[in-house]
Task: structure prediction
Amino acid sequence: MEGAGGERTEGTNPLSPQARVVLARAYQLAKGPLAGVEDAAKDLVSVSGGDATAISVARREVLARLQHGHSPDDKQVASLLRRAIELGAWKLQWADTRPVP
Result:
């Protein structure tokens, strides 16, 4: 397993460049003093460029790291990425579909 940031860890698929950026920023936020989880999660959404997939892939990477031993920041990073997903600050492609009658 590699160090924290955007590196690839053992047993995981290579990360997209955008997911690496999101993951690296999440670790930066986790290491520093957090003023608020909401603001940090919004920052991650902004860094992702509105790409929900990049955040999702970054979160799966952190969850894999947690299964194989982890750094002290991994749990915080997983929480920040989960909150970024929950915020739904980006427009999902299926959000405009009409419900099935």
About this structure: The chain has one domain: 17-91. The mean pLDDT is 77. The two ends are 48 Å apart (CA to CA).
